[in-house]
Amino acid sequence: MAITTAEDYVAKREPHRRAHLERLHGLRAAGILIGGGPAPDGRRVDIFYRLQQPAQVTPAVEEDPYFLAGAWTGYTPSSFTHFVEPWEQVPLVLDGSRVATIVEGPAADEDMAQFALIEARGAGRLAFGGLFEGARTLAVLKTPRADEALAWLGDTGFWKRDALAARPWLHVL
Predict the structure, then answer these.
(1) pLDDT value at position 1?
(2) Is residue 160's pLDDT more than 90?
(3) In whole angstroms, what is the distance from residue 91 CA to residue 23 CA?
(4) Which fold would CATH assign to domain 81-170?
């Protein structure tokens, strides 16, 4: 879920932060939440839910205290066609110290890209990620360095390297 935030996101979220985090912990305990966090500049939030039906999208986002308070202003859902699950649930980190990189772009070879993501997870480089319709990739890579994250995927030859884009992401949970 790609979530847009209000101009004054940090101020609007603060009074509701505890309720938001408690809700996310509950969703995680129920197996619904995979992970989430904001961009370092607070202009976007990416949350990864495990939802079975399209009707679950609206309550997943719109019942969140941040959405109800106006800190989140909109969202765009996307469904993975292939997904590489995380091997571990990372602990909650609120201080911004766990910076990851989200890499997005088209795979040149969808089947081999899926295997490459599994290998990246095995090598400790991929937190989770996968492919959308049309072989579009979104991978959460365990490095704060965009150049390194791009190389991890691009050097495999299974992605169109010049079409990959990287952005920083705070892996909160």
Answers:
(1) 97
(2) no
(3) 15
(4) Alpha-Beta Plaits (3.30.70)
